[in-house]
Specification:
With 192 residues, the protein is of the alpha/beta class. The chain has 4 helices and 14 strands. The termini are far apart.
């Protein structure tokens, strides 16, 4: 307990041979993209990771991580990998934002954003954004429609806009059941 090491130094140690935690905890600092998946944590020790600015997180490289703290700006991760890491333990944003790619329907609602950090989310193709999905994205303050074939009801879009920004870019978003909802803050619309 109380042991610390940088992600680069741990990756170097792992390249030289096994690293076994036993019942001891290990805090990793300055994680950027190192493969730490071969750390042996079977003895009950916990592996906690704090990222550096610009970290590219993948669940496969952090298979033994019990907790992740976003320690700098510009971190990126796919929605699938973030959902996997959330199943392993807490992910805390602190005051930092994280860019999420390829979002389809993953539950990201357990991300700890109490420090003010937010998720910026880019969708994949053919996402049907429902009130359930909006609940999964409670910590997102910017949604970019990143693929084709995405759909949402006008009521759900109005709810999403109240939570943050929605950007279409070059992609279309099919909006159904429009009556009188204020959708004026979306940068462009394709109504069907």
């Amino acid at each position: 307990s109380g042991n610390t090491i940088s992600a680069t130094d741990l990756a170097t140690l792992l390249s030289q041979g096994p690293v076994t935690l036993g019942a001891n905890d290990l805090a990793i600092s300055a994680y950027s993209n190192q493969n730490l998946s071969t750390v042996d944590s079977t003895g009950g020790g916990r592996l906690t990771v704090t990222t550096a600015a610009g970290a590219a997180l993948t669940a496969a490289n952090l298979a033994d991580a019990d907790a992740i703290t976003i320690g700098g700006s510009g971190n990126t991760i796919s929605a699938t990998d973030l959902a996997t890491l959330l199943n392993q333990g807490p992910v805390t944003l602190g005051a930092n934002d994280v860019a999420i790619s390829a979002y389809s329907n993953q539950n990201l609602s357990t991300v700890d954003s109490t420090g003010g950090g937010r998720l910026t989310v880019t969708t994949s193709d053919s996402v049907t954004i429902t009130s359930t999905i909006i609940g999964y994205l409670a910590d997102a303050d910017a949604i970019t429609i990143g693929g084709s074939g995405n759909t949402i009801s006008a009521t759900d879009l109005a709810t999403l806009l109240a939570q943050g920004s929605v950007t279409l870019g070059v992609n279309d978003l099919a909006i159904s059941a429009y009556s009188n909802q204020n959708l004026s803050t979306v940068d462009s619309l394709s109504l069907i």
